[in-house]
Amino acid sequence: NAGVTQTPKFRVLKTGQSMTLLCAQDMNHEYMYWYRQDPGMGLRLIHYSVGEGTTAKGEVPDGYNVSRLKKQNFLLGLESAAPSQTSVYFCASSYRTAYNEQFFGPGTRLTVL
Amino acid sequence: KQEVTQIPAALSVPEGENLVLNCSFTDSAIYNLQWFRQDPGKGLTSLLLIQSSQREQTSGRLNASLDKSSGRSTLYIAASQPGDSATYLCAVRRGDDKIIFGKGTRLHILP
Hints:
Chain A is mainly beta and 113 residues long. Chain A has strands spanning 4-7, 10-13, 19-25, 31-38, 42-49, 56-57, 65-67, 73-78, 87-94, 103-104, 108-112. In chain A, a hairpin with a 5-residue loop joins strand 7 (65-67) and strand 8.
């Protein structure tokens, strides 16, 4: 099993450009999450999904959109990138059961110039 | 609002020592608490998850405890090794499935 994978691993954007980050999991997990990690700020939840076709806002949702059209995929979109969105983005997934341990992907390093 | 705090931010200890990392949270209405380690430039690796109804969980040299009433969790590492050097993060899951992370403790084991 590949676990949680993220595409791409690195990306450089110019201000105003758009892009989509893809997260895929092969563990049949119901829940999926997108986080950003910044120095001194720790990991912060952007959006999450508790099942196919559902999404919910996390702690820092502004400037991002998400979609969960298939159970195994969770997409994070930036419509008009800003330098403040320079960060490392992590995706995670977990079961819906009581013991819903999160498993993380390797991260995407995004720089917005 | 749930806040998660990890003190100290950094810790250095000689190899072989036992050590305790701390995690505190302000709202005791949590669903579970999970400990992770993160190596530089890498993703997060799950270490232990404690349900709100549990008091502790053990895995090898690691033992995590949870005291909901006082809003505290500890991660005990026995007989530390240089390979234990990493950043350790705790995260609490709220009843609405939102997850709040602490900022981590950067641990350095001195050979």
